[in-house]
Amino acid sequence: MSGPIPSTEDPFLDRPVGRVFLTTAVPMAAVLTLSGLHGVIDAAILGRVVGAEAVAAVAMVFPAAMVAVALSTLAGAGAASLMGRALGGGDVRQSRAVFAAAQTLALALGVVAAGLLILGGAALLPHDPIGRMAWDYLWITSVGLPVQLLGAAWGDAARTEGRAGAVAGIMLAATAANGTLDLWFVAGLGWGVAGSAVATVAAQALALVLAIRVRGCARPAGARAVLALAPRIVALGLPVSLSFVGMALVSAVVLAVIGGTAEPLAAYGVVNRLLALAFLPAMAIGLAVQTVAGRNAGAGRQDRVRAALHIALLAALGWGLMVEAAVQLAPVPLVRLFVAEPAVVAEAVRQLRLTVAAWSLVPPVLAAAMWLQAQGRAAEAAVLTLARPFLVLPMGIVAFASVVGPEAIWLAWPAASLLLAGLAFLVVSRRPALVPA
Questions:
Q1: Contact assessment for residue 291 and residue 159, using Cβ atoms and an 8 Å cutoff
Q2: CA–CA distance from 319 to each of 34, 220, 247, 273, 306 (Å)?
Q3: How many helices (H) and strands (E) does the chain have?
Q4: CA–CA distance, 34 with 31 (Å, rounded to integer)
Q5: How far apart are CA 76 and CA 53, in angstroms?
Q6: How far is CA 164 from the centre of its chain?
Q7: What is the mean pLDDT of residues 378-389?
């Protein structure tokens, strides 16, 4: 069993909200950013060592990668919301029961999804050189999917229990291992895309082993406990999880529009990696407000729940403005981290500048959604997290492609950001009072 959770005084309930938010968000941002660096390192080494076609191959299986992340958040984020409210109410036993169910659910989802992704990739990927590299990456990372999901469940539990600093150290070690193995397998041994995938899975396995050593083992939940808790875990994790499924859908629509041509596909791969990395600190802000608001909602501290929202929105807007300014002012150096071919660089810069316009509104919308989720307002959180990837962006991409042409599809991103910011304002301000947890 895991060790006891310390506690006579709960800092989430007793310390100033701003300080608690910062001490939760900063380590979490470091953890998520370090975990996201796996993908950035993979793409940068592949692009600079193997070439733009390797980046295009990884972009081709980006929808599958987003499905894997979606499954991770389904078990992890949903359990974290339940654990946070249980700990806020002083129910440590319930918190442990939720985690035990979450890790069993994560393992089951990982095994089933791995098989489905491998079967789907074998049937759908083309048999040209880029398609064969994409297949190598897909089947190897799919085999490691159960490890990825278990690691995510352990990490979400640890940050909800206030151990985000330890998780940051684990992710630093895993990122260092990933980069070292990438260089060895890709550049040293010449394994190409397959070597990058092996390095990623090995780093995920290391992170899981270290997390278990830090947090301690937890006895897997029995079938009855999993069946009892899984619907609640899934209901709370589903809004955020489906947002990643939506990203997979958006990516699939983009791939269908731009086709399999190497240059635009490689450029899109670069843009995806940069935007995914920028999104992770925004996710940390959302997870932090989920943790702080959830603990205080469980304790009936509604004034602190509202204060957490205000702080999170300011932090999210600040991060969004920083990202937007950096990309608009210096896109070329960012793109050249991944590829050197002039035509790919030019196309990636064009795509990046268009997609990041109004991106500063994306993090506040996510923070608002996570704040709603922390209080059990899953339906409203779902509206904010799902409208963009399932409705607004796909329709915008198709509309711009049909009316203006495929080169204009990137304008769908700023249009979606503006629309969703207005929707978020309406949803959050619709109820003057908080819903009890």
A1: yes
A2: 17, 38, 21, 17, 20
A3: 18, 0
A4: 5
A5: 34
A6: 16
A7: 82
Element (H, E) at 196: helix 192-215
The crossing angle, in degrees rounded to 10, of helices 412-429 and 378-387 is 160
Structure tokens at 332: 């070329």
CA 409 – CA 258 distance, rounded (Å): 9
Residue 435 DSSP code: P
pLDDT tens digits along 274-326: 998 999 899 889 888 888 887 777 666 777 878 888 899 999 999 999 999 99
Task: State the Cα–Cα distance between residues 66 and 308, nearest whole angstrom.
Answer: 29
Name the one residue in this structure whose structure tokens are 């937007």: 324
Q: Is the whole model's pTM more than 0.85, yes or no?
A: no
Phi first, then psi: what are they for 122, rounded to 5°?
Answer: -60, -35
The distance from CA 280 to its chain's CA centroid, rounded to whole angstroms, is 6
Answer yes or no: are the C-beta atoms of 384 and 368 closer than 8 Å.
yes
Single-letter amino acid, residue 20: V
Q: Of 345, 310, 314, whose CA–CA distance to 331 is shortest?
A: 345
- Cβ atoms of 60 and 197 within 8 Å: the answer is no
